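S.,

As promised, the adenosine-3'-5'-diphosphate run. Input:
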Amino acid sequence: MSILSGRLAFRPRPNDVYLASYARSGTTWLQMIVYQLTTDGSMDFTHITEPIPYFERALSVGRDLNKLPSPRLFKTHFRYKKLPKGPYKRIYIARNGKDVLVSCYYFFRAHSPFKGSFDQFFKNFMVGNVQSGSWFRHVAEWSAHAADTNVLFIRYEDLVNHFERTVNRIAEFLNVPLSPEIYARIAERCSFTFMKQHEEKFGFLQEVLIEFGFTGEDFIRKGKSGSGKEHLSPEQEAMFDRAASTVIMPPPLEAPARTARA
Ligand code: A3P
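Predicted complex:
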């Protein structure tokens, strides 16, 4: 499925919430804060992309987002104008651009075919010639909407330096109560240490696998002959045999002939 057909199938709801950013700006941190704020905080998910899907990838692989219960939360790296138009709340997290650049460099070296030098990456980043496009344009476009009533603009540095205040702003914006108990849980579970300990629930590769619907079931599966016969219906078997009748394979080995004992 293309992203276009994914978009056509997607039905926006007024209470959808988008958590938006340029890559490597603290999106996953924000996802976890909002997840902890709006649920009972259970860590019973394989990856954070299950409760809070990565919008554009989910659309492009045909994940059925219409099945999710309301209110839906989405992570996105889309530019402002690429998101569905409407009253939906959006929280944008921005980060110091030079820190983003460095974080992107390490990320793309590890997760993309790019294996060039930092100097090369710097030049590419400056002209927006990287997977995530121009950081300058992304942040400028979102900043232009920072005062919109349905946009909350926060910074990674706000979370680092004023965590409680920033979590309060997010809770107010989303109209969700923030008791001291819930705040304590958020502070604990959204700490770098806690998230690092549970990295498999936040990492890139696991996210890709889940969004593509890969289950990671056994690669070394059964190691027996005969699954074909067990699984195919008689019609499927007949169809298969007809198609295979044109394939000439060398015969399988015969059982060794028994040598008569003297
Ligand atoms: P660094 O590479 O600078 O360490 P994103 O989720 O948008 O891809 O952003 C990733 C960046 O956020 C990484 O930055 C990552 O370490 C940082 N990050 C993730 N969880 C964090 C947390 N709980 N506290 C502080 N930084 C966090």
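The chain has 13 helices and four strands. Strands lie at 17-21, 73-76, 89-94, 151-155.

- D.
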